[in-house]
Amino acid sequence: MWKMTRRISLSGRLCCFPKDPLEDVCAWSESVDNVLTCKTGQLAFREFLQSEHSEENILFWLACEEYKKIKDVPEMISSANRIYSEFVQTEAPKQINIDCSTREKITKDISQPTLTSFDSAQKLIYCLMARDCYPRFLKSDIYQGLLRKSDLR
To answer: What is the pLDDT, as a whole number, of residue 24?
Structure first.
């Protein structure tokens, strides 16, 4: 049986989801993983990170998650180079905040990427989001507004 598609507005934008997009909002307060494993949570968290000028963190984390699913070697090489040039290399357009040794290791290994090439950087960014951004997200108007909407259902 098909569920009716519902719409959610995050700052005026409408997005379609096959289930009630506010169904999981309460669970987001339990862990950053609950936010990151939910499409609606990702959208809300991304919007929050945009407001803090740190959207590159979730974009990098999501790019790494997709990268790890790649089975085709040429596609993996292409994707690794895109992730590197967009997020990792010095002066990248969406440069992530990682330590020099992690950046240098990725730079050294990028000519022969593997599915684990970005794991150390992804873990650092995950920890940064979990420790710094996530607690502020839970207090944000974005999350609190969604929580209020979900309570009304």
So the answer is: 83
Predicted TM-score (pTM) of the model is 0.84
Tens of pLDDT, residues 33-48: 999 999 999 999 999 9
Sequence-distant (≥ 6) Cβ neighbours of residue 102 within 8 angstroms: 120, 121, 124
CA distance 107 to 16: 39
For the residues of 61-96, what is the DSSP string, one character each? HHHHHHHTT---HHHHHHHHHHHIIIIISTT-TT--
CA distance 146 to 40: 10
Tell me how far apart the alpha carbons of residues 102 and 99 are, in angstroms, rounded to a whole number.
6
